[in-house]
Write a structure and sequence with these properties.
Order of helices and strands: EEEHHHHHHHEHHEHHEEEEHH
Shape: elongated
Number of strands: 9
Structural class: alpha+beta
Largest sheet: 7 strands, mixed
Strand content: 5-15%
Number of helices: 13
Number of domains: 2
Radius of gyration: 21 Å
CATH class of the largest domain: Alpha Beta
């Protein structure tokens, strides 16, 4: 069974905004409340609030204060201090993302991509499975440009160049003093598809070889000869905000928008799929050898 999640975007409600991180936190609080057998009215009384505030918290419409989270967790009988710490960390990340005015704000608006980049900006680890394309964080400008030119949504050359610039800026997360740990698994088809022609693909393969040398980047290739595998329906990325994976969210692109999988069951499912694909893939050294051989052939 494959979890499909729902197509979601950063959604305004008056002066409030529903974000992926807030919905993740709200879902965790809802799960704890249900497990404790508490009603929304009882939760509201615990923090001296209205029922509507609990609804907005559990649906991710409002930023959450640490005191409210602590009181609710105590009311729900939560005794695991590590779980509480993770919830407080998630609330802090969400508050920071709501206030952030990163470079992307003037480039991609306030929609789903802005939210994705803002989460990418603070993720501690990203694992990406790509079925047909080179992952965005690894693309050259020429490769991105060729994709935009071929896509019906992009017609204005200036808009295409703006998209290319945004994707190149995103790649700053792989560098610097606190780079994200990036683990990408790519199907062999993405390496062989001639996006932009031989010259563009040669440069793209060279970029993969260069980036794979970074200590925070791990790259593997799922070869054709593997045959059937558990991730043959869609590409996805798992964004982690804690070492143990408890705060993972999963993003997948569709033709109509971004799909987010936010609860523990869904993220656990995609973690399992990713791990299985990793086991079926070439080892990093052999993956690099394949990429290099394709570069020489191009």
């Amino acid at each position: 069974m494959r979890h499909t999640g729902s197509v979601t975007r950063t959604t305004p409600l008056g002066n409030r905004t529903s974000t992926v991180l807030a919905r993740k936190l709200g879902g965790e609080l809802l799960r704890l409340r249900d497990a404790a057998g508490k009603t929304q009215r009882q939760a509201a009384e615990a923090i001296n609030a209205t029922n509507s505030k609990i609804v907005k918290m559990e649906q991710g419409w409002v930023p959450m204060r640490d005191p409210d989270i602590r009181i609710l967790c105590e009311a729900y009988g939560l005794e695991d201090h590590e779980v509480l710490a993770r919830l407080l960390d998630l609330a802090k990340l969400d508050r920071e993302r709501r206030k952030a005015r990163g470079w992307w704000r003037g480039s991609v608006g306030d929609g789903a991509m802005a939210e994705f980049i803002s989460m990418e900006d603070v993720a501690s680890r990203i694992r990406s499975w790509e079925l047909a394309l080179i992952p965005g964080l690894l693309q050259t400008a020429g490769y991105t440009r060729a994709l935009c030119v071929a896509h019906p949504a992009w017609e204005d050359p200036d808009e295409i160049e703006a998209e290319v610039e945004v994707k190149q800026k995103r790649q700053g997360r792989l560098l610097g003093d606190n780079p994200v740990h990036y683990y990408a698994v790519i199907w062999e088809a993405a390496l062989r598809q001639q996006i932009g022609g031989p010259g563009v693909m040669r440069g793209q393969l060279e970029r993969l070889l260069d980036l794979s040398a970074l200590t925070n980047v791990r790259l593997q290739v799922l070869p054709f000869w593997t045959g059937a595998h558990p991730a043959n329906t869609a590409s996805f990325s798992i964004l982690s905000f804690a070492e143990d994976g408890a705060l993972d969210v999963v993003q997948s692109d569709t033709h109509t928008g971004m799909t987010w999988m936010e609860d523990a069951e869904e993220s656990g499912y995609f973690n399992e799929v990713f791990d299985r694909v990793v086991r079926l893939s070439l080892a990093p050294r052999d993956s690099i050898a394949l990429i290099d051989s394709l570069r020489k052939e191009s």
